[in-house]
Amino acid sequence: MLLLCLAVLCLGASSPCAAAPHQGSTNPTRNKLLLISFDGFRWDYDRDVETPNLDKMAQHGAKALYATPPFVTITSPSHFTMLTGRSVENHGVIHNIWFNTTTQQKKQYYEAQFVDSYWDNGSLPIWITAQRQGLKAGSLHFPGTAATYRGETVGVSQVEPFLYDHSNETDWRLNIDKVIGEWFHQQDLDFVSLYFGEPDDIQFQLLDYGPLGMLLPKEGTLEKVYKALKGSHPHLHVYKKEEMPARLHYGNHPRLLQIILIADPGYIFLPLHSVKGDHGFDNEAMEMKALFRVVGPDFKKNRVVDHIDLVDVYALMCHLLGINPEINDGHLDNTKHMLVNTGGDNN
Ligand SMILES: *[C@@H]1O[C@H](CO)[C@@H](O)[C@H](O)[C@H]1NC(C)=O
Ligand SMILES: *[C@@H]1O[C@H](CO)[C@@H](O)[C@H](O)[C@H]1NC(C)=O
Ligand SMILES: *[C@@H]1O[C@H](CO)[C@@H](O)[C@H](O)[C@H]1NC(C)=O
What we know:
alpha/beta, Alkaline Phosphatase, subunit A, 3-stranded antiparallel beta sheet, about 20% helix, binds 2-acetamido-2-deoxy-beta-D-glucopyranose
Protein backbone atom coordinates (compact mmCIF):
# COMPACT_ATOMS: atom_id res chain seq x y z
CA MET A 1 0.00 0.00 0.00
CA LEU A 2 2.53 2.46 -1.12
CA LEU A 3 2.43 5.18 -3.61
CA LEU A 4 5.86 5.61 -4.95
CA CYS A 5 7.21 8.31 -7.16
CA LEU A 6 10.71 8.61 -8.41
CA ALA A 7 11.45 12.04 -9.65
CA VAL A 8 14.75 12.56 -11.36
CA LEU A 9 15.75 16.17 -11.34
CA CYS A 10 18.10 17.02 -14.13
CA LEU A 11 21.04 19.19 -13.33
CA GLY A 12 22.12 21.89 -15.72
CA ALA A 13 21.44 25.49 -16.52
CA SER A 14 18.58 24.74 -18.88
CA SER A 15 16.77 22.53 -16.46
CA PRO A 16 13.66 24.11 -15.01
CA CYS A 17 13.74 21.95 -11.93
CA ALA A 18 17.26 22.21 -10.60
CA ALA A 19 19.72 24.92 -11.40
CA ALA A 20 22.20 24.89 -8.58
CA PRO A 21 25.85 24.79 -9.57
CA HIS A 22 27.34 21.40 -9.00
CA GLN A 23 30.43 22.28 -7.03
CA GLY A 24 33.30 19.86 -7.01
CA SER A 25 31.63 17.43 -9.32
CA THR A 26 33.57 15.50 -11.90
CA ASN A 27 30.41 14.77 -13.81
CA PRO A 28 28.45 17.94 -14.54
CA THR A 29 25.59 16.00 -16.14
CA ARG A 30 24.98 13.78 -13.17
CA ASN A 31 21.36 13.35 -12.19
CA LYS A 32 19.91 14.36 -8.93
CA LEU A 33 17.44 11.80 -7.74
CA LEU A 34 14.48 12.19 -5.42
CA LEU A 35 12.63 9.12 -4.19
CA ILE A 36 9.24 9.94 -2.71
CA SER A 37 7.00 7.48 -0.96
CA PHE A 38 3.45 8.14 0.12
CA ASP A 39 2.48 5.33 2.43
CA GLY A 40 -1.02 3.95 2.45
CA PHE A 41 -2.29 4.79 -1.02
CA ARG A 42 -3.44 2.13 -3.43
CA TRP A 43 -2.42 1.67 -7.05
CA ASP A 44 -5.88 2.67 -8.28
CA TYR A 45 -6.29 5.72 -6.07
CA ASP A 46 -5.87 7.99 -9.11
CA ARG A 47 -9.03 6.45 -10.57
CA ASP A 48 -11.21 7.38 -7.61
CA VAL A 49 -10.40 11.07 -7.28
CA GLU A 50 -8.96 13.91 -9.33
CA THR A 51 -5.17 13.73 -9.26
CA PRO A 52 -4.02 16.41 -11.71
CA ASN A 53 -0.40 16.35 -10.57
CA LEU A 54 -0.08 12.59 -10.68
CA ASP A 55 -1.65 12.73 -14.14
CA LYS A 56 0.88 15.35 -15.17
CA MET A 57 3.70 13.15 -13.92
CA ALA A 58 2.37 10.31 -16.05
CA GLN A 59 2.32 12.59 -19.09
CA HIS A 60 5.83 13.90 -18.52
CA GLY A 61 7.25 10.54 -17.56
CA ALA A 62 6.37 6.91 -17.14
CA LYS A 63 3.84 5.15 -14.99
CA ALA A 64 3.23 1.55 -14.14
CA LEU A 65 -0.37 0.41 -13.91
CA TYR A 66 0.62 -0.89 -10.52
CA ALA A 67 3.69 -1.79 -8.51
CA THR A 68 4.03 -4.96 -6.48
CA PRO A 69 5.54 -4.44 -3.05
CA PRO A 70 7.54 -7.18 -1.39
CA PHE A 71 5.91 -9.42 1.20
CA VAL A 72 5.24 -8.59 4.00
CA THR A 73 3.43 -5.53 2.68
CA ILE A 74 4.04 -3.24 5.64
CA THR A 75 6.06 -0.07 6.02
CA SER A 76 9.56 -0.89 7.30
CA PRO A 77 10.09 -4.14 5.36
CA SER A 78 8.88 -2.77 2.03
CA HIS A 79 10.69 0.56 2.32
CA PHE A 80 13.92 -1.21 3.15
CA THR A 81 13.47 -3.31 0.04
CA MET A 82 13.31 -0.11 -2.01
CA LEU A 83 16.49 1.16 -0.36
CA THR A 84 18.45 -2.08 -0.74
CA GLY A 85 16.96 -4.00 -3.67
CA ARG A 86 16.78 -7.05 -1.45
CA SER A 87 13.76 -9.14 -0.66
CA VAL A 88 12.61 -9.08 2.95
CA GLU A 89 14.06 -12.49 3.83
CA ASN A 90 17.42 -11.23 2.58
CA HIS A 91 17.57 -7.80 4.21
CA GLY A 92 16.19 -9.02 7.53
CA VAL A 93 13.85 -6.14 8.42
CA ILE A 94 11.02 -8.66 8.58
CA HIS A 95 8.43 -6.56 10.39
CA ASN A 96 7.63 -3.07 11.62
CA ILE A 97 7.91 -4.51 15.10
CA TRP A 98 11.26 -5.54 16.51
CA PHE A 99 11.08 -8.41 18.93
CA ASN A 100 13.25 -10.67 20.98
CA THR A 101 11.80 -14.13 21.47
CA THR A 102 14.07 -14.86 24.44
CA THR A 103 13.09 -11.87 26.52
CA GLN A 104 9.64 -11.33 24.93
CA GLN A 105 10.66 -7.71 24.50
CA LYS A 106 9.02 -5.82 21.65
CA LYS A 107 9.52 -2.44 20.05
CA GLN A 108 6.81 -0.93 17.91
CA TYR A 109 7.42 0.82 14.59
CA TYR A 110 8.84 4.05 15.96
CA GLU A 111 11.15 2.61 18.60
CA ALA A 112 12.35 -0.08 16.18
CA GLN A 113 13.74 2.68 13.92
CA PHE A 114 16.55 3.17 16.44
CA VAL A 115 17.66 -0.46 16.78
CA ASP A 116 20.80 -0.36 14.64
CA SER A 117 21.38 -4.10 14.66
CA TYR A 118 17.87 -4.67 13.33
CA TRP A 119 18.45 -2.58 10.20
CA ASP A 120 22.16 -3.20 9.73
CA ASN A 121 21.81 -6.91 8.99
CA GLY A 122 24.08 -7.27 5.97
CA SER A 123 22.32 -5.09 3.38
CA LEU A 124 23.45 -1.54 2.76
CA PRO A 125 20.83 1.08 1.93
CA ILE A 126 21.49 3.11 -1.20
CA TRP A 127 22.44 6.23 0.81
CA ILE A 128 25.53 4.52 2.19
CA THR A 129 26.53 3.01 -1.14
CA ALA A 130 26.13 6.39 -2.84
CA GLN A 131 28.23 8.09 -0.13
CA ARG A 132 30.97 5.48 -0.44
CA GLN A 133 31.10 6.29 -4.15
CA GLY A 134 31.46 10.02 -3.58
CA LEU A 135 27.86 11.19 -3.72
CA LYS A 136 25.91 13.12 -1.10
CA ALA A 137 22.70 11.60 0.24
CA GLY A 138 19.87 12.73 2.46
CA SER A 139 16.70 11.28 3.92
CA LEU A 140 13.64 12.84 5.44
CA HIS A 141 11.40 10.61 7.58
CA PHE A 142 12.08 7.57 5.38
CA PRO A 143 12.03 4.27 7.32
CA GLY A 144 15.60 3.26 8.15
CA THR A 145 16.90 6.83 8.32
CA ALA A 146 17.81 6.73 12.00
CA ALA A 147 19.99 3.63 11.88
CA THR A 148 23.76 3.31 11.50
CA TYR A 149 25.02 0.94 8.83
CA ARG A 150 28.55 -0.46 9.15
CA GLY A 151 29.35 2.60 11.22
CA GLU A 152 27.91 5.08 8.74
CA THR A 153 24.66 7.04 8.64
CA VAL A 154 22.96 8.91 5.84
CA GLY A 155 24.82 12.23 5.61
CA VAL A 156 21.87 14.60 5.92
CA SER A 157 18.83 13.41 7.74
CA GLN A 158 15.65 14.40 9.45
CA VAL A 159 14.30 11.58 11.57
CA GLU A 160 10.58 11.58 12.15
CA PRO A 161 9.72 12.96 15.58
CA PHE A 162 7.83 10.72 18.00
CA LEU A 163 4.05 10.84 17.48
CA TYR A 164 4.53 12.89 14.33
CA ASP A 165 1.34 14.30 12.84
CA HIS A 166 1.35 12.96 9.27
CA SER A 167 -1.73 14.91 8.30
CA ASN A 168 -0.34 18.43 8.71
CA GLU A 169 -0.19 19.95 5.22
CA THR A 170 1.85 22.94 6.35
CA ASP A 171 4.53 20.52 7.43
CA TRP A 172 4.37 18.67 4.10
CA ARG A 173 5.17 21.90 2.31
CA LEU A 174 7.97 22.84 4.70
CA ASN A 175 9.53 19.41 4.24
CA ILE A 176 9.37 19.64 0.46
CA ASP A 177 10.92 23.11 0.55
CA LYS A 178 13.66 21.81 2.80
CA VAL A 179 14.50 18.92 0.47
CA ILE A 180 14.43 20.93 -2.75
CA GLY A 181 15.69 24.28 -1.51
CA GLU A 182 18.15 23.43 1.24
CA TRP A 183 19.24 19.91 0.48
CA PHE A 184 19.36 19.75 -3.31
CA HIS A 185 20.14 23.39 -4.11
CA GLN A 186 22.13 24.75 -1.16
CA GLN A 187 23.80 21.56 0.06
CA ASP A 188 24.00 20.04 -3.41
CA LEU A 189 22.89 16.55 -2.42
CA ASP A 190 22.68 13.96 -5.20
CA PHE A 191 20.04 11.69 -3.75
CA VAL A 192 17.22 12.21 -1.26
CA SER A 193 14.54 9.84 -0.03
CA LEU A 194 11.38 11.51 1.24
CA TYR A 195 8.60 9.74 3.11
CA PHE A 196 5.04 10.75 3.81
CA GLY A 197 3.32 8.53 6.37
CA GLU A 198 -0.27 7.63 5.88
CA PRO A 199 -2.67 10.07 7.47
CA ASP A 200 -4.03 7.51 9.90
CA ASP A 201 -0.64 7.12 11.49
CA ILE A 202 0.76 3.64 11.73
CA GLN A 203 2.52 4.26 15.00
CA PHE A 204 -0.74 4.91 16.82
CA GLN A 205 -1.99 1.49 15.85
CA LEU A 206 -0.66 -0.78 18.51
CA LEU A 207 -3.05 -3.42 17.33
CA ASP A 208 -2.65 -6.97 18.46
CA TYR A 209 -4.22 -8.41 15.38
CA GLY A 210 -3.73 -8.38 11.66
CA PRO A 211 -3.30 -10.55 8.59
CA LEU A 212 0.23 -11.73 9.44
CA GLY A 213 1.14 -13.69 12.51
CA MET A 214 4.21 -15.54 13.60
CA LEU A 215 4.44 -18.12 16.31
CA LEU A 216 7.29 -19.68 18.16
CA PRO A 217 5.77 -22.81 19.71
CA LYS A 218 7.21 -23.98 23.00
CA GLU A 219 10.00 -26.55 22.73
CA GLY A 220 8.65 -29.81 21.36
CA THR A 221 5.17 -28.53 20.47
CA LEU A 222 5.76 -27.43 16.87
CA GLU A 223 3.88 -30.33 15.24
CA LYS A 224 1.02 -30.12 17.69
CA VAL A 225 0.51 -26.38 17.23
CA TYR A 226 0.93 -26.65 13.47
CA LYS A 227 -1.64 -29.45 13.16
CA ALA A 228 -4.10 -27.61 15.35
CA LEU A 229 -3.93 -24.48 13.19
CA LYS A 230 -3.59 -25.99 9.74
CA GLY A 231 -6.97 -26.08 8.04
CA SER A 232 -8.67 -24.46 11.03
CA HIS A 233 -10.12 -21.66 8.90
CA PRO A 234 -10.57 -21.46 5.10
CA HIS A 235 -9.08 -17.94 4.98
CA LEU A 236 -6.13 -18.62 7.22
CA HIS A 237 -2.98 -20.01 5.63
CA VAL A 238 -0.66 -21.80 8.00
CA TYR A 239 2.92 -22.51 7.03
CA LYS A 240 5.97 -23.84 8.69
CA LYS A 241 8.67 -21.34 7.90
CA GLU A 242 10.35 -23.75 5.48
CA GLU A 243 7.11 -24.34 3.56
CA MET A 244 6.44 -20.70 2.86
CA PRO A 245 5.74 -20.20 -0.86
CA ALA A 246 9.05 -19.24 -2.49
CA ARG A 247 7.42 -16.36 -4.41
CA LEU A 248 6.82 -14.51 -1.12
CA HIS A 249 10.54 -14.53 -0.21
CA TYR A 250 9.59 -14.65 3.42
CA GLY A 251 10.76 -18.03 4.67
CA ASN A 252 14.49 -17.87 4.87
CA HIS A 253 15.75 -15.59 7.62
CA PRO A 254 16.72 -16.52 11.19
CA ARG A 255 14.41 -13.79 12.53
CA LEU A 256 11.31 -15.43 11.05
CA LEU A 257 9.55 -17.65 13.56
CA GLN A 258 8.73 -21.33 13.04
CA ILE A 259 5.09 -20.94 12.13
CA ILE A 260 3.82 -18.18 9.86
CA LEU A 261 0.13 -17.38 9.55
CA ILE A 262 -1.32 -15.35 6.70
CA ALA A 263 -4.95 -14.33 6.42
CA ASP A 264 -6.68 -13.64 3.12
CA PRO A 265 -7.52 -10.00 2.34
CA GLY A 266 -10.59 -8.97 4.28
CA TYR A 267 -9.72 -11.23 7.20
CA ILE A 268 -7.69 -10.62 10.27
CA PHE A 269 -7.15 -12.91 13.21
CA LEU A 270 -6.07 -12.85 16.79
CA PRO A 271 -2.82 -14.70 17.19
CA LEU A 272 -2.40 -16.82 20.27
CA HIS A 273 0.65 -14.96 21.47
CA SER A 274 3.87 -13.51 20.14
CA VAL A 275 4.29 -11.19 17.21
CA LYS A 276 1.70 -9.69 14.94
CA GLY A 277 1.11 -7.17 12.21
CA ASP A 278 -1.29 -4.51 11.10
CA HIS A 279 -1.38 -4.74 7.33
CA GLY A 280 0.62 -7.14 5.29
CA PHE A 281 -1.54 -9.38 3.14
CA ASP A 282 -0.24 -11.42 0.25
CA ASN A 283 1.50 -9.11 -2.21
CA GLU A 284 -0.40 -10.72 -5.09
CA ALA A 285 -3.66 -9.26 -3.74
CA MET A 286 -4.62 -6.20 -5.80
CA GLU A 287 -5.48 -4.32 -2.59
CA MET A 288 -1.76 -4.34 -1.76
CA LYS A 289 -0.50 -2.91 -5.04
CA ALA A 290 1.14 0.48 -5.14
CA LEU A 291 1.11 3.44 -7.46
CA PHE A 292 4.26 4.20 -9.44
CA ARG A 293 5.43 7.27 -11.34
CA VAL A 294 8.84 8.25 -12.66
CA VAL A 295 9.70 11.60 -14.17
CA GLY A 296 12.91 13.04 -15.49
CA PRO A 297 15.17 13.36 -18.49
CA ASP A 298 16.10 9.67 -18.42
CA PHE A 299 12.53 8.50 -18.80
CA LYS A 300 10.28 8.19 -21.80
CA LYS A 301 7.30 10.48 -21.80
CA ASN A 302 3.69 9.40 -21.58
CA ARG A 303 4.83 5.84 -21.20
CA VAL A 304 2.57 3.30 -19.49
CA VAL A 305 4.04 -0.03 -18.51
CA ASP A 306 2.11 -2.95 -17.20
CA HIS A 307 3.61 -3.38 -13.76
CA ILE A 308 6.85 -3.25 -11.88
CA ASP A 309 8.17 -4.83 -8.70
CA LEU A 310 9.41 -2.52 -5.98
CA VAL A 311 12.42 -4.81 -5.53
CA ASP A 312 13.62 -3.56 -8.94
CA VAL A 313 13.57 0.12 -7.97
CA TYR A 314 17.00 -0.06 -6.32
CA ALA A 315 18.82 -1.17 -9.48
CA LEU A 316 17.06 1.58 -11.40
CA MET A 317 18.09 4.21 -8.85
CA CYS A 318 21.72 3.07 -8.91
CA HIS A 319 21.65 3.30 -12.69
CA LEU A 320 20.20 6.84 -12.57
CA LEU A 321 22.81 7.93 -10.03
CA GLY A 322 25.63 6.28 -11.93
CA ILE A 323 26.77 4.18 -8.97
CA ASN A 324 27.65 0.51 -8.70
CA PRO A 325 24.90 -1.38 -6.90
CA GLU A 326 25.50 -3.81 -4.06
CA ILE A 327 24.39 -7.40 -4.56
CA ASN A 328 20.60 -7.25 -4.80
CA ASP A 329 17.54 -9.21 -5.84
CA GLY A 330 16.28 -6.83 -8.53
CA HIS A 331 17.18 -6.27 -12.16
CA LEU A 332 17.60 -3.13 -14.21
CA ASP A 333 16.23 -5.13 -17.16
CA ASN A 334 12.80 -5.03 -15.54
CA THR A 335 12.54 -1.22 -15.65
CA LYS A 336 14.76 -0.46 -18.64
CA HIS A 337 11.80 -0.13 -20.99
CA MET A 338 10.85 3.09 -19.22
CA LEU A 339 14.23 4.65 -19.93
CA VAL A 340 15.23 6.56 -23.03
CA ASN A 341 18.23 5.35 -25.02
CA THR A 342 18.16 1.78 -23.82
CA GLY A 343 16.65 0.09 -26.82
CA GLY A 344 13.11 -1.20 -26.94
CA ASP A 345 10.51 0.77 -28.82
CA ASN A 346 10.62 4.52 -28.61
CA ASN A 347 7.50 6.08 -27.34
C1 LIG B 1 17.57 -11.26 23.03
O1 LIG B 1 17.82 -11.24 24.39
C2 LIG B 1 18.83 -12.15 24.82
C3 LIG B 1 18.86 -12.15 26.35
O2 LIG B 1 19.06 -10.82 26.84
C4 LIG B 1 20.15 -11.72 24.20
O3 LIG B 1 21.17 -12.64 24.59
C5 LIG B 1 20.00 -11.72 22.70
O4 LIG B 1 21.18 -11.24 22.10
C6 LIG B 1 18.83 -10.84 22.27
N1 LIG B 1 18.62 -10.97 20.85
C7 LIG B 1 18.48 -9.91 20.05
C8 LIG B 1 18.19 -10.19 18.63
O5 LIG B 1 18.57 -8.76 20.47
C1 LIG C 1 21.27 -10.78 11.00
O1 LIG C 1 20.45 -11.05 12.12
C2 LIG C 1 20.48 -12.41 12.53
C3 LIG C 1 19.44 -12.65 13.59
O2 LIG C 1 19.09 -11.51 14.29
C4 LIG C 1 21.88 -12.74 13.01
O3 LIG C 1 21.94 -14.08 13.41
C5 LIG C 1 22.85 -12.48 11.88
O4 LIG C 1 24.17 -12.68 12.35
C6 LIG C 1 22.71 -11.06 11.37
N1 LIG C 1 23.58 -10.90 10.20
C7 LIG C 1 24.32 -9.81 9.98
C8 LIG C 1 25.18 -9.83 8.77
O5 LIG C 1 24.28 -8.84 10.71
C1 LIG D 1 1.33 22.15 11.41
O1 LIG D 1 2.70 22.36 11.22
C2 LIG D 1 3.11 23.71 11.37
C3 LIG D 1 4.57 23.81 10.96
O2 LIG D 1 5.36 22.84 11.58
C4 LIG D 1 2.86 24.13 12.82
O3 LIG D 1 3.24 25.49 12.98
C5 LIG D 1 1.37 23.98 13.12
O4 LIG D 1 1.14 24.25 14.48
C6 LIG D 1 0.92 22.55 12.82
N1 LIG D 1 -0.54 22.50 12.93
C7 LIG D 1 -1.14 21.64 13.74
C8 LIG D 1 -2.63 21.67 13.68
O5 LIG D 1 -0.55 20.90 14.49
